[in-house]
Structure formats: C-alpha cells, structure tokens
Amino acid sequence: MKKIIIIDDDIINLKSISINLKLRNYLIFESNNGKKGLEIIKKELPNLIICDLYMPSLNCIELIEEMRRNSLNIPIIIISDNDSSEQIKKVINAGSSSYFKKPFDLELLITKAESLVK
Q: DSSP strand E in 2-109: where?
C-alpha cells in the first residue's frame, strides 16, 4: 500500500485531503506542524508528501531542505494561499514536484497525487 503524509495546520483542509485519499486505498499519515511531519517522514518514508507552505515550527521549504540533507528524495506537493510568482519559483527551486493555490480543486490535487505515487 502506498503511503502519503499530509502536513497542514488547517485541520479542515487536512481532513478533506486525507479522507479522499483514504477512499482510494492509500495509507495516510497526518501532521499539523512541520517538525512532527518531518519525524513521520523519517520513520515511515512515504511515497508522497502533501504540505502546506506556511507551517508552525518548520515551514515547507525548511522541511524540503532538511529532507535533502538526509537524502530523502520524496515527491512533494505544496499547497498555499500565496500565489506570488516569486513564492512559486522559490518552492519549485527548493524541490517541490507541484504547487496548488488554496482554495484548490480537490480532484485535481488527488489526480496529481496519484500520478506522483505510481
């Protein structure tokens, strides 16, 4: 079973994505902050990470940098309410596989997630 971790401090967003992926038979891990999310990533080695850009204790770019230092090469979908071209460029350069602006089309996010874990 493919493993996906969702890291988002917005509990409604977190649960919405989580429920939809569980219905598609993925093993889901959840975290509401970046530090805890990184601990889960190191322990579980998921096939995909879906992460909000701005998080308590460790933001998504810091999380990506820490993963790279630990040689963890896992696809990452970043979600954020910030759609500035500078911010998008920054997350893509950091190593994000994809970027979705909130509010996003959940089906498009799920489709992208499924394509990255195949």
A: 3-7, 27-31, 48-52, 76-80, 98-101
